[in-house]
Specification:
Blueprint: E1 3-8, H1 19-30, H2 45-48, H3 51-65, E2 70-74, H4 81-91, E3 100-104, H5 110-120, E4 125-131, H6 137-162, E5 163-167, H7 173-181, E6 184-187, H8 201-209, H9 214-227, H10 237-250, E7 255-260, H11 266-280, E8 288-293, H12 302-307, E9 312-319, H13 346-364, E10 369-374, H14 379-398, H15 411-421
Parallel strand pairs: 2-3, 2-4, 4-5, 5-6, 7-8, 7-9, 9-10
Antiparallel strand pairs: 1-10
Helix pairs in contact: 1-14, 3-8, 4-8, 4-11, 9-14, 10-14, 11-14
Bound molecules: 5-phosphoarabinonic acid.
């Protein structure tokens, strides 16, 4: 289903030489004996997820869909990026969906929230607020403002039909507030952390409301769980990828640039950056995850990649079949001199740009390129891809003795910000 091509990766060690290490860590992952093992619910989630809750997600989505001219999704980090990545990947950027999704609660920008408020003023709004802790300031603040807007517009009674909370099953202020107000609630499992949570109600609720087929996502996730549950490096592209990252960092590359040739994958890159960056960037270790969208960024960052300091390798996410394609028309006058492409497909041009760029970067520029292929940008592929990157992240982090499931560093800005905001310490 997903393949890794290392023929342009300029590897100086063989992947197979890591087989013994991978055998050992594969056991650590599947037997859940490593660091952070209380956050490994994602490992078999494709099998163990709450089926009744899944059905309820489908029912609630069906119920609110018609009301949702605008769906507000209020959350940040792991409670935001996955849903946005999936919606954009699967539906594209101009899908014609009758529901417009707007992501809020992921910034303190006053201009942003004020403009959202103006934009939704006369629209029919449904909101899904998502926060595991229930106390994240960006999310809680936006929720307060938007809840007030909705209560003024619809009254508290109608808000019960329009506000859905996804949060911890028992703890936290959001859970208490949702229960008090009578909102529909969905549970974020205790043992799945934010950046691994798109496969739980965190991602599935907004996806279902937007009309994404979440059963197909779970089918892709399940197949990946079955197929990637092997330590055999020759059969497991996710572990091959995990090993390649380590080999390339050993060769001195401290930056990984995630490259896609589809603008609708830009948010997937953001999701991937959180997954790798928050999981691995600890104890002065890790590879900095960066991203680019080609060919757009070949006209900007391309110069650095080609001829700048040799700090990075590229990981290309290649899409075999585009969601849509079209043929380039012939122009009788050929005044733009583009007739040499007449009759060719747009996607063929994109693929030729990719091949030419790999050659430029690898052969001329000496920049290693890993190529991960997915068949398409549909639901099943998204579900599969999630598992691929989850398990690759666990493996690649354990290889350098990093706990992939905590994020102690993100607390420090909060502490300083709370002091400046005068938050009561209790
Ligand atoms: O990966 C993570 O754990 C974080 O990005 C969280 O998802 C993010 O901080 C939001 O947290 P919460 O869902 O508690 O509001």
């Amino acid at each position: 289903m997903m393949k890794l091509n290392t023929s342009h990766a300029l590897l100086k060690e063989s992947i197979e030489s890591y087989q013994e290490k991978v055998n050992e860590l594969h056991k650590v992952i599947f037997e859940r004996t490593g660091a952070g093992n209380d956050f490994m619910g994602w490992v078999d989630w494709a099998e163990t997820y709450d089926k009744a809750e899944f059905e309820r997600i489908l029912q609630v989505a069906e119920k609110v869909k018609d009301k949702a001219e605008v769906l507000l999704v209020c959350g940040i980090g792991g409670s935001y990026l996955g849903a946005r990545a999936a919606i954009e990947m699967i539906q594209g950027l101009y899908s014609g969906n009758k529901t417009e999704v707007i992501f809020v609660g992921n910034t303190f920008s006053s201009t942003y929230i004020a403009q959202v408020l103006k934009h939704i003023q006369d629209k029919s709004v449904v909101m899904n607020v998502i926060s595991k802790s229930g106390t994240t300031t960006e999310t809680a603040l936006a929720f307060r403002v938007l809840r007030e807007f909705m209560e003024n517009k619809y009254g508290k009674e109608e808000c019960k039909e329009r506000i859905i909370a996804t949060t911890d099953k028992a703890r936290g202020t959001l859970k208490a507030l949702a229960d008090k107000e009578g909102y529909e609630t969905f549970v974020i499992p205790d043992d799945i952390g934010g950046r691994y949570s798109v496969i739980t109600p965190v991602g599935l609720v907004p996806l279902a409301i937007m009309g994404v087929d979440i059963k197909k996502i779970m089918a892709g996730l399940y197949d990946a769980y079955k197929e990637l549950n092997t330590a055999d490096l020759s059969k497991n592209p996710a572990y091959q990828y995990a090993v390649c990252r380590r080999i390339l960092q050993n060769q001195g590359y401290d930056v990984e640039m995630f490259v896609a040739y589809e603008p609708q994958l830009a948010m997937l890159a953001e999701w991937w950056k959180q997954l790798l960056g928050e999981s691995e960037g600890k104890d002065g270790k890790g590879i900095l995850p960066d991203s680019a969208n080609f060919s757009t960024d070949l006209h900007s960052l391309g110069q650095f990649i080609q001829e700048g300091k040799k700090v990075l390798f590229e990981t290309i996410l290649e899409v075999e079949n585009p969601t849509e394609d079209l043929l380039i028309p012939t122009d009788a006058e050929n005044s733009d001199q583009m007739n040499y492409l007449a009759g060719k497909s747009y996607d063929w041009v994109n693929k030729m740009a990719c091949l030419g760029t790999i050659e430029a970067h690898e052969v001329t520029g000496g920049v290693p390129n890993l190529i991960i292929s997915i068949p398409d940008m549909k639901e099943y592929s998204f579900g599969y891809l999630c598992y691929f990157f989850f398990i690759a992240t666990a493996m690649t982090c354990y290889m350098i003795d990093i706990n992939p499931f905590n994020q102690p560093g993100v607390e420090i800005y909060k502490k300083n910000m709370f002091r400046l905001l005068g938050k009561p310490t209790k």
